Structure formats: structure tokens, C-alpha cells
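Attaching the record inline, Q. Sequence:
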Amino acid sequence: MGCLIYLFTSMKTRSIGFIVMVIFSAFVIFLTNGCHGIYLDETKASSFIAITPIRIGLYKNRSGRTLEETLIRSFASDYNLNTTIINYSSYDKLIADFKNQKLDIALAKTSIRHSNLSALSSPSYEDLKLSLFCRNQNISQILIPKQFEFVKTELADFDQNFTDKTTVSDLTFDQILNESFQNKNSCFISESQNFNFAKVQQKKYLKIWTSSELYPFAWFVRKNHAELNKLVHIWFQKLIRENKMIRYKDQFDAPNFKMSLIEYKNFKKDVLSKLPQWRNYFIDYAQKYQIPWTLIAAVAYQESKWETEAKSYTGVKGFMQITSKTAEHLGIEDREDPIQSIQGGSYYLKYLYDKTPNKLTKFERWIQALAAYNIGWANLRDLHRLAKESAIDAYRWKNLKELLPEKSNPENLETFQFGLARGEETIDFIEGVLMYHEALNNMFTQQLQTSRDF
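Structure, as predicted:
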């Protein structure tokens, strides 16, 4: 009712008829929409959509969760929608089912400007360039994923010799990657996220060419489902307004892995020779504390290389490198016992995760938990206080990376309540855990979560 009072009191002297008309119009708007406008009523829109099941087609062209999957699951969760998500490894099959109205939303990972779909669309959530990746300059074949077929024209404009070498393929990215690796003269078109994934596999590629234009990517919504499209737009506007979109992207844009080929071979060797003895313990305690087993295993590998008698130069001992003080807090009698260490480390990771704000993404919460696991919760709070004074968002990983070295700067001794600490080592610790976690997921979980999702 406050909006009616405001309208009435703010009016200058006008005719009685005009005043009555304005009040009546405002009253109608208030009854139907309150003070928030006629169109973008989020609650009303979501209530309308929630009564019917929504069928979503997701083009799943590689293992591991993608930004598209993360966004669509968050959208469904935020509005408690009844959704069925169907994974498609064939782009053509996804498009055919969407055209035949078997799907309400299609996440096709293709440019909305070059789509031949007669559909509504969400706002663009990414503007990407495409690149040509090869193992050498002697190109015999260029594989173009079907959803990127539109890039053929720009590629030919760049080099006419490419025209006869291009092959549009409905293979998944994993299959294209394998094909290009088997044939060292075979190249492929990809966007940055997939290429970063390729580097995880320890295959070396050259970037031969990059598109001159940015291609906008969006969701496709059935034309006769206008109410659903309204809700999609409301949700995307909310993400942008609350600065959440960039938080979702952070976990996929984070710098990828730095394992050398020798390191990767040694890691794979340890996976085969050491991991089998401990894997069931990782899985059991992961289920008990509801965290990914590959994350626990990655922390253990980063800390001790799965060596039961590992000891750091600071005197920290055991599989998960738990300090004596933390072991006492967790009730661990023998921190050098690997099973007790796994249990204690798993519990401690979840304990730290639960201390982080719920408003953060899972990726951000795990980054904070991993930082606290290594540097201590008190030292992490010191950094948060410094960030607040400097108007920096310390929950974003790229910002925290810039702050952590400040913990070891002697000039800041009086700044921090809990003194100095080895911040650079914490960066190395987190990046190592992310690296091993992703590698383990690629080996074992395939279509499940990656370190970019947890």
C-alpha cells in the first residue's frame, strides 16, 4: 500500500477526475503486481511454469560438467521446477527432437546468430571465439564439430587451402580429440573450455587460427512456451544484477592444469600401484561426509603422494598431513595411521566447507575450504578482513590468489591479527589439488563432476 500513498502524496494539485483515474490505475496494478511492475513478476511466472514438467536437452559432447549444465541445474533448483534433463551425444539428434517438440529447452552449445532453429532464446550467457588446434603445421584434415559448422566460411576466408580439408562431424569432442591424436596431421575446431580439457589429457597442440568474431551462445526455448522463456529471462537478469553469472563462469575460466608429461606419467603410475589400496576408504568416508571421493584422494596425493610415512619439513605427518593440534581437535589418536588420517581429513574438509557462506557457488566454497585446510581458518579470516578494507571480493579464486602472498609479506606483520603465513604455498596446494582432482575424475568418474563443479 506504500506505493499508493507515495503516488497520492507526491502529486501536485490536479483535477479530481485525473487524481481518481491515477489512483484507480495504481490500485489495479497493486492488486495484480504490487509495486514491482506488471511484467517481470518472478513468483507468478515460476508458479505458472512449475505445474508442468520441463524437458531439457543438453548437448553433452565431452565428459565432465559444463557451464551449460551448471546453469540449467541452478535454474531448475532456484524455482523448484519439475525438469528432466536428457544428455545428447549427437547434435543432430538433439536438434531433431527440439524441432519435433520433444524438448522444451535445448542447450545446443552453438551460436544463436547461426542457428536455423525457429525458437525463442535466452540472453547470451557466453561470447566465445573458436580456434583451430593442430599438433603440427602439416594439416591433412580439419574436423569441425557439427554445432560449429558455421565457422567453415570464416575458416575458408582465412586460408582457401583449408576448404578441401574440412570435415563436419557429429562426433563428440572426446572422439574428435582421440581422432586428432591418432592422426598427428588431423586438426580440430574448438572453443577454449574444450581445449583446456584437452590439455588435461597431456596432448600438445598448436593454435593455428582463431576466429575474428565472437559467437554468442544461448539457450533455445520452444516458441509456444513463451511463459518459460519469460522466466528464463528473469533468471538471467537476476544473475547479472546480483553479479552471479561471473561467479558461475569463474570455475570454468580458472587456469587449467600445469602437470608436465613426466608428472602425469608418474601420477598415472601411482594411481595404478598405490590408489587401489586406499580407494575404498576414500569412497566410504566421502559417502559418510557427502563430499567427492576424488577430492579427498586429490588432497591426500597433494599432501603425501599417498605415502603413509610422509612428513613435511614443518613436522606435519601422515597421509593427509594433519597437524597435531588439528588431530587433537578431530579426536585422531594416531595421525600417522592412514585410515584415521583419511577419516579425519575428510571430516575436516567438510567441516571447513560448511563454515563457508551458502550464497557462494560450490567451487568458491571448496576453494575457501581448501585454503583454510592449508593455511588455517584464522589466517583465511585475516585475508578476508584485508580484502574488505580494500573492497576486494576474496571469495573469487583469482582475487584470493592475489591476496594470499600478502600473508607472507613482513610489511604486513602488524596488519594481520594472526601473524604471517606461507600464502604462496597455499596457492600451490589449491592448484595441485584441483589438478589431481580433475585428473582422477577424468580417469574414474567420466560423466560425473569435475574440479570445476565438485
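The CA atoms of residues 308 and 319 lie 5 Å apart. Residues 423-445 form the longest helix (23 residues).

More tomorrow.
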